[in-house]
Amino acid sequence: MSEIGLIGKKIGMSREFFKTGQSIPVTVLKVEKARVIQLINKEKRGYDAVQLGFGKIKNSKLTKSMKGYFSKKNTEAKKILKEFKVKDLDQYKEGNEFGIEIFKDIKFLDVRSKTIGKGFAGAMKRHNFGGLRASHGVSVSHRAHGSTGQNQDPGKVFKGKKMAGHMGDKIRTMQNLEIIKTDLDNDLIYLKGSIPGSKNSEILLKKAVKNIKKLTISEKIEIFEKSKKTKEKKKITYEN
Predict the structure, then answer these.
(1) Structure confidence by residue, pLDDT tens digits, 166-209
(2) What is the pLDDT of residue 239?
(3) All domains of the chain, ordered by start, with CATH?
(4) Is the pTM of this model over 0.90?
(5) Less Cβ around it within 10 Å: N or C end of the chain?
(6) Above 90 in pLDDT, residue 10?
(7) Three-state SS for 134?
(8) Nearest to residue 196, comparing CAs of 10, 4, 8, 7?
């Protein structure tokens, strides 16, 4: 079940307090249930996949072809359709719904979203350049990015050169974000740290690709409390 992912909406940021007094910044995501719209098999496309539908949409906003597609599948219209490749199709059926319960035994997630667009930005803001000297000999061009080309040969600016331009508004993936807690009643998931994108932006959540062996915060607290208890026991025995 962890092969598939979910799409959530970024609500904002908050913090979680643990009994040890630790304060952890978290991003709160509202995750709607996903519905299986179609099962794709190897005979049809050459790979096994599940097509999931997310979010609600008015029928008036659908194209004629999409209206026909959803009526053929005998399901309500969905705003987003996304395919997820799976190894086994037997555990999925058309019409089934999944929520954040699929991440029950998972500790870390990979998150994919679009960064906030900053418009046209200079080289210092966009690429963290140091700029030119603010002392003798430099006039007007304090925040300039310096020379960009070469000699007469090749006599051009190479592609990918760090210069001023459109900043942000790009798809980015954050890996290995820890799940601090989940609220099944309100379909909320709390992830440690910040996530790219503005409020109400769409976020794709999937099980972490990398095999992570690091401990979660709750596991670290458990180890700390156990060590604390053993120290106290040793102290009592020495006193006696």
Answers:
(1) 999 999 999 999 999 999 999 999 999 999 999 999 999 999 99
(2) 62
(3) 6-146+158-212 (2.40.30.10)
(4) no
(5) C
(6) yes
(7) coil
(8) 10
**Rounded average pLDDT over 88-115:** 91
Distance CA 55, CA 6 (A): 11
What letter represents residue 154's amino acid?
Answer: P
Peptide bond connecting 154 to the previous residue in cis, omega within 30 degrees of 0: yes
Is residue 28 within 8 A of residue 15, CB to CB? The reply is: no
The secondary structure of residue 103, as a DSSP letter, is G
E strand intervals along the chain = 6-17, 23-31, 34-40, 49-56, 78-85, 97-98, 108-114, 119-121, 165-167, 171-183, 188-192, 202-207
Nearest to 207 by CA among 73, 87, 97, 103: 103
The answer to whether the beta carbons of residues 16 and 26 sit under 8 Å apart is yes
Contact (Cβ atoms closer than 8 angstroms) between residue 106 and residue 179? yes
